Amino acid sequence: MKEWGNLADATLGAAKESREATIDFARRGSKMKAANSLIPFLNARLQGTLKLSNSFKERPVQTGAIGMAIAGLPAAALYIHNSEYPEYAEIPDYIKRENFIIMTGNKETPFLKIPKGEVGKIFGNPVESFLAQAKSDDPNWKSTAASIVDSFLPVGSVEDPGKFVTDLMPT
User: Fold this and answer.
1) Are 144 and 126 in contact (CB under 8 A)?
2) 101-110: b or e for each residue (b if 16 or more CB lie within 10 Å)?
3) What is the pLDDT of residues 145-157, one digit of tens each?
4) First-to-final CA distance of the chain
5) Is 96 exposed, middle or buried (CB count within 10 Å of its CB: 0-12, 13-18, 19+)?
6) What whole-number distance in Å separates Cα of residue 155 and Cα of residue 145?
7) Contacts of 20 (CB under 8 A, 6+ apart)
8) Do 138 and 90 touch, CB atoms closer than 8 A?
9) Which residues of 1-38 are buried (b: 16+ CB within 10 A; e: fewer)?
10) How far apart are CA 72 and CA 24, in angstroms?
11) Structure pTM?
12) What is the 3-state secondary structure (H, E, C) of the chain?
């Protein structure tokens, strides 16, 4: 309460801070309300991306380290594991972009999917793209750069404009 002075200001300040502590799904304008009805979870993705961007601005080293620990390193480990299976190359890219894939070696269930979420996409997809390019005989580093940009886009893709459609598909 000392920070705000009196009880009324402290209550208002605490309410504002509580809305900033997590993603505010109610925060949207009239255009976003219409767009969100056409593209499921668009507002949630946008708010999550803004929240992560603000975190990078305020604490860049901590945010990067935490993101790499919870998504980048697992993505690298899974890519190394999965690249041992030829069937991994047959999985559509839109499924790989949205999910962590675990190849099982089982004919009935060749792989398992774990949804990446926004942090998983932002930190995991560029790592996977980098490793794929490093392993490739003909690397396309432009693709890795596009993967980084795409990770921050709520829908669509810099490299593949048709990805907008696959964003609407179930994974």
Assistant:
1) yes
2) bebeeeeeee
3) 776 677 666 666 6
4) 47
5) buried
6) 17
7) none
8) no
9) eeeeeeeeeeeeeeeeeeeeeebeeeebeeeeeebbee
10) 26
11) 0.66
12) CCCCCCHHHHHHHHHHHHHHCCCCCCCCCHHHHHHHHHCCCHHHHHHHHHHHHHHHHHCHHHHHHHHHHHHHHHHHHHHHHHCCCHHHHHCCHHHHHHEEEEECCCCCCCEEEEECHHHHHHHHHHHHHHHHHHHCCCCCHHHHHHHHHHHHCCCCCCCCCCHHHHHCCCC
Which tens digit of pLDDT belongs to each residue from 13-46?
A: 666 666 555 555 565 666 666 776 666 667 777 7
Tokens of 109: 């269930």
Structure tokens that stand for 27 in this block:
């925060």
Give residue for tokens 């993101």. Answer: 67
